[in-house]
Amino acid sequence: MRIIDRVYIDGSFVEPHGEQWAPLFNPATEEQIGKVRLADEEDANRAVAAARRAFPAFSNTSKEERITMLKRLHAAVSERAGDLVEAMRVEYAAPPSFIDFAARRAGNVFLDMAEILESYDFRRRIGRADVEMRPSGVAVAITPWNSNYSFICGKLSTAIASGSTMVIKPSEMSAIQTQVITECLHEADLSKGVFNIVTGYGNVVGAALTANRDVSKITFTGSTVTGRAIAQMAATTMKRVTMELGGKSPSIILDDADLQVAVPQVLAAGFLNSGQACIAGSRILVPEYRRDEIEARLKEEVKVFTLGDPGDSEVRIGPMVSQKQWDRVQGYLRLGQEEGATLLIGGEGRPEGLERGWFVRPTIFSGVRNDMRIAREEIFGPVLCVLSYRDEEEAIAIANDTDYGLQANVFSSDLERAKRAADRIEAGRVIINGAPHEPLAPFGGFKQSGFGREFGVFGLEAFLEPRAVIS
């Protein structure tokens, strides 16, 4: 049983003022594997005070000093990649390929931001004005459970690069992962108060951080419902906010696509991180005249997406994070059938041979209309919907007929045609033919998928305020 009874404030692991405890589970076995003592409002305010004290000196560090810090952070995190993998395996049980990617990315984001800093100009002459990009102040990062240390490192790397200090509130469901990554970051030996990490409930610690008048910037990744509440509270003190929220991403298979190539990629996009991903391609748009052919291929190809404990390298879909999330997904599986959709494969209940763990049968619904709730609401599980279209014009209309606009996928044998389609899609990112991750490209959403951008130059400037001196 892992007992986590410290938070990280002002450069030290300290006992929290909060006295409430939360259990920690292994989703693949449903066994309790630990518990975490949670921070409270007093801890949140202590962390902000530490970040505020550190800000004057840290905001005046040079670009070269920050690059050196980022490289130290990369080294400290990379050195314990194996421990990060193990922590995510036992506490979140994501598929092995996702865990490996997340562990590598946690360290690499610091190098990515160091690369951006190398060529970034904080001072510019514009007309008669000297313009300086200044750090925004004390920033708060509120991160979710579905890629814990990737989000922590991604947001912290940008704060460090900008010269802002930070308080991080991770999900209480990821406390073991948080403990390991905090130990890594501590080893980088940054000045006290530059970053602080307090694990607690969103309605307690998150609310206190959002309300604190000494906080200038909030970066949040999570649900649209929670993001909306944070944005409303932040507006009372005019905090700058970056919101990366929900998604219902379309995967458009154009009529000239090579199905042998496209179908495996479509399923990989849909089942990414066991479907517990805001960017998951959960709506599959197919040409009407090829629907039967595509659905037959989907039904056959889905069989290679094996479920089980992430200790097995062949596993491609893990369990849901909690009993609550499992129940939620089961509710959508029932709802889809009630709405008139047809189960192509999967459905309610546990997968065969898995009597323990919060596993969901990989499910594909056929005959889905875009006005059905299963096509419009974020399910956050391995549940995909097939929608048919008559021509490309209708495909684009269906893809854009959503409250969300985080990411989209286009598959075609003609790259230029795919790019033309991408130009018409209302989403912050469009991936063509399963293109690999580009860490320096901006990431964020249109519509109710949020506002602001992360990563690269766009992410850095979200933590900066321009000041003009005119002479």
TrEMBL record:
The keyword Magnesium does not apply. It is an enzyme of class 1 (oxidoreductase). The active site is at E244. InterPro entries: Ald_DH/histidinol_DH, Ald_DH_C, Ald_DH_CS_CYS, Ald_DH_CS_GLU, Ald_DH_N, Aldehyde_DH_dom. Its EC number is 1.2.1.3. Keywords: Oxidoreductase, Plasmid. It holds the Pfam family Aldedh. It catalyses: an aldehyde + NAD(+) + H2O = a carboxylate + NADH + 2 H(+). Residues 13-469 form the Aldehyde dehydrogenase domain. SUPFAM superfamilies: ALDH-like. The keyword Cytoplasm does not apply. Belongs to the aldehyde dehydrogenase family. This is aldehyde dehydrogenase (NAD(+)).
